[in-house]
Amino acid sequence: MTWTELVMGSAPSKGDQPAVSDVRTGEVLSYAQFARRVTRAAAGLRRDGLTAGDRVLIDLPLGAALPVAVHAVAWAGGIAVLRGAGPARMMITLGRHDADVAAADRVYAFRPTPGAFPFAGLLNASPLEFGPLAGAALALGAGRVLDHDELAADLRNLAARLVIGKDDVVVNVAGDLVKGLRVLDLAVMSGAHVVIAANEPTVIGCRVLAAERGATMVVAPYDVARRLLGDPSLRVVDERAIVSSLGL
């Protein structure tokens, strides 16, 4: 089972239950919506010329759009590049972008943007039912490239160690994209509801959000996590534990 296949594995059983909530935008994606957007966007990328091994720059903040874009690229057989610059076959961005830095042949944007195609246009394609069997899937800038097998095996190891359940509500205030994406992957794979609050990495902000959302777990930077310890109703995880097994 590939990385993206593993992450989407709970979609059939969870259906319309919430998978990802984005505090910044107010967007809530159900499991069914998440899987549908990933498979349709992957088909759209293939239709527009993405081939196996092509690099796609991902210029998005930590939010509900991030896992959709990353996993659509991976499901289409491409390599999602976080924190990277061109050259690349394609780029997926929120809105404005630096064309000189990106150096991508084709740009998609979630917001109306001159010179970019709407990401929503990718969702008109019929779902891509089957993704790649293996191969490179995620690149961290110009450096390390991780493949499906490596990412999937690491998620399984994390799940065994951190034990997130299908009824958990996980507040994700990870400090960077890589850590935030791994929290998203782990929570969604486990059937939990992950609440992304990238702009709330404070002790008070985390406590208020956890109370409002009925959270059972918070994943936060070390300085915040250590100050949240002591609440018996809340499991607190230092974000470094999410990527340590990958040596990041």
What is the makeup of the main sheet? 7 strands, mixed
Order of the strands making up the biggest sheet: 7-6-5-3-4-8-9
Rg computed from alpha carbons, rounded to a whole number of angstroms? 17 Å
Number of strands: 13
Helix content: 25-40%
C-alpha end-to-end distance: 23 Å
Tell me the number of helical segments per DSSP (H or I, 4 or more residues long): 10
Mean pLDDT: 91
The gross shape turns out to be: globular
Q: Beta fraction of the residues?
A: 15-25%
Structural class: alpha/beta
Encode the helix/strand succession as letters: HHEEHEHEEHEEEEHEHEHEHEH
- The low-pLDDT segments are none
Written description of the protein model:
There is one protein chain. With 248 residues, the chain is of the alpha/beta class. It has helices spanning 3-7, 11-14, 31-47, 65-75, 99-102, 148-162, 177-189, 203-213, 222-228, 240-243, and strands spanning 18-22, 28-30, 55-59, 79-82, 88-93, 104-109, 117-118, 136-140, 145-147, 169-172, 193-196, 217-220, 235-238. The protein has 10 helices and 13 strands. The chain has a 7-stranded mixed beta sheet. Strand 3, helix 4 (65-75) and strand 4 (79-82) form a beta-alpha-beta unit. Helix 3 (31-47) packs across helix 4 (65-75) and helix 6 packs across helix 7.
